[in-house]
């Protein structure tokens, strides 16, 4: 891959690398202090920091958009793609931090490098309308990029107990164990009027308890009651709670009354659901979400709500999948197994990352 790109004088990656180059001009000077470019997670940074006062490496976060752009002929405008080459040009080790799943990354890289060739796992695919735990995927991604891939673990922090949204916890406390679903589609996707209507009718038809977090684009003045089907809030009564704006997702998922998570399958939401052992009712919208949803189904920890041939949600299907996940034993059992597996591993994966970084940096430091 050729990187014929201008130097971005104001980009964070370039300025950090330039600082490292200036510090290391003299052969007798020590390498720069650890440099973290991008949001790589507090747990990861805290694990690395105490290990070495001077490790002299650059950690670059790679987002979904970065991975897609890497597959294009001229990925010039994204500084985090440019950063590894800049680091190498200054003789500074660089580690790319993938803030997404190995299955999604390897899938899209496979599409770019092997067009027309079936992906190694048939359960991971995209439907026509979507074109617009992962050991084997990690191995395959390693083959594709010709680099060692080291899993870092879920990087999900435990919820902090606060008095915020106390009414939600009180509502949950009044419900039977595993009798309610949590409905949320993240902070970056906003449902269309049609999607909101079908989901509303779907949760109503399911006859299960639910908490639904509804968000509207910032700056738009939307009346919640007008956005939902006429009479919806009155008809659900105490069986449902609709919250506008924000709700403590991890606290809700951890609650014993939650038996399912109606989710868009953003990677952070998938990790949180697995950490707390909650099966997923998958409704992917765009980007990496369809691949994440297929992974959830392949693991047996959830069921995807199938759309019609035009990609539209249907209320009957929404209701059917919600009831299925709450009633059937398999998704619950698989979700519980994933949670226990994460608990048993603890910080072992993070420790492995730390050891890899220290090995890389000690190799570099021998040159000084």
UniProtKB/TrEMBL annotation:
Residues 1-35 are annotated as: Disordered. The keyword DNA damage does not apply. GO terms for molecular function: UDP-glycosyltransferase activity. GO terms for biological process: carbohydrate derivative biosynthetic process. Keywords: Glycosyltransferase, Transferase. PANTHER family: GLYCOSYLTRANSFERASE. Belongs to the UDP-glycosyltransferase family. This is UDP-glycosyltransferases domain-containing protein. It comes from Quercus lobata.
């Amino acid at each position: 891959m050729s990187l014929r790109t201008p130097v971005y004088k104001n980009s964070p990656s370039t300025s950090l690398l330039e600082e490292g180059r200036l510090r290391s001009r003299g052969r007798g000077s020590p390498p720069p202090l650890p440099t973290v470019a991008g949001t790589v997670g507090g747990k990861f940074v805290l694990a690395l920091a105490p290990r070495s006062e001077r490790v002299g490496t650059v950690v670059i976060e790679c987002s979904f958009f970065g991975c897609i752009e890497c597959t294009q002929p001229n990925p010039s405008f994204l500084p985090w793609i440019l950063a590894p080459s800049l680091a190498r040009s200054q003789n500074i080790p660089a580690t790319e931090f993938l803030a997404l799943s190995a299955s999604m990354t390897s899938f899209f890289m496979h599409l770019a490098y092997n067009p027309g060739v079936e992906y190694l796992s048939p359960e991971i695919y995209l439907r026509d309308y979507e074109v617009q735990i992962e050991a084997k995927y990690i191995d395959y991604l390693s083959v594709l990029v010709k680099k060692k891939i080291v899993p870092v673990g879920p990087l999900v922090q435990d919820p902090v107990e606060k008095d915020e949204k106390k009414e939600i916890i009180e509502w949950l406390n009044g419900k039977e164990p595993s009798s309610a679903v949590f409905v949320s589609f993240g902070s970056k996707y906003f449902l269309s009027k049609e999607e909101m209507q079908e989901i509303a009718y779907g949760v109503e038809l399911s006859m299960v308890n639910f908490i639904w977090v509804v968000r509207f684009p910032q700056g738009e003045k939307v009346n919640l009651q007008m956005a939902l089907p006429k009479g919806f809030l009155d008809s659900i009564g105490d069986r449902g709670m609709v919250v506008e704006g924000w709700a403590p997702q991890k606290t809700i998922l951890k609650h014993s009354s939650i038996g399912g998570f109606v989710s868009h399958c953003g990677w952070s939401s998938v990790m949180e659901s697995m950490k707390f052992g909650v099966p997923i009712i998958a409704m992917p919208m765009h980007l990496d979400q369809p691949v994440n949803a297929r992974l959830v189904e392949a693991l047996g920890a959830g069921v995807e709500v199938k759309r019609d041939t035009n990609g539209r949600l249907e209320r009957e299907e929404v209701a059917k999948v919600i009831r299925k996940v709450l009633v059937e034993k398999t998704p619950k059992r698989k979700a519980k197994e994933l949670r226990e597996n994460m608990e048993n591993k603890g910080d072992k994966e993070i420790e492995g990352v730390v050891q890899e970084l220290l090995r890389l940096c000690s190799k570099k430091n021998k040159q000084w």
